[in-house]
Amino acid sequence: GMNNATQEYFPTELNPSITTTFSTVLEILSKAGCTFTSVSLPSTKYALSAYYVISSAEASSNLARYDGMEYGEHTKPDSSFKGKIGDLYALARTEHLGAEVKRRILLGTYALTAT
Fold first, then answer.
1. What does the alpha-carbon distance between residue 59 and residue 108 come to, in Å, rounded to a whole number?
2. If we measure between CA atoms, which residue out of 92, 48, 55 comes closest to residue 74?
3. Between the CA atoms of 105, 111, 114 and 115, what dihedral angle is there, to the nearest 10 degrees?
4. What's the confidence (pLDDT) of residue 2?
5. Is residue 39 helix, strand or coil?
6. 58: closest CA among 96, 112, 114, 99?
7. Among 110, 100, 108, which Cα is nearest to 52's?
8. Quick one: which of 6, 14, 37, 53 has the fewest CB in 10 Å?
9. What is the pLDDT of residues 98-108, one digit of tens each?
């Protein structure tokens, strides 16, 4: 059958041991009857950035329910509570969520609300 080898997945900075191994595998498969064409996916360079924005937006949306009221750890109000429900949400999330989760919620919320 016809198979594709994507050029962008093998930049010149890639460790030569990887490209050598890959070339060896292609050679073995070619001898077994496989044919290959080289293809280009120029948008590949944007994949990691796109993934980070999309996954953060998804995390923000999915984690919004962890407000310390219905879902997540409940936190009793402290002196920072000014009578607004948002203050309780912020307090619960500050106290119970890790740094990466908070970062993804903030970045995802920004991505979802940006115009």
1. 7
2. 92
3. -150
4. 66
5. strand
6. 112
7. 108
8. 37
9. 888 888 888 89
Cβ(7)–Cβ(40) below 8 Å: yes
Look up residue 40 and give its amino acid.
S
Residue keyed to tokens 């796109």: 50
Joined tokens for residue 60: 């923000």
Nearest to 9 by CA among 37, 44, 34, 43: 44
Give pLDDT tens digits for 52-72.
Answer: 899 989 988 887 777 666 666
Return all residues near 40 (Cβ < 8 A) that are at least 6 apart: 6, 7, 8
Residue at token pair 């106290």: 95
Mean pLDDT of the chain: 84
Residue located via tokens 């016809």: 2
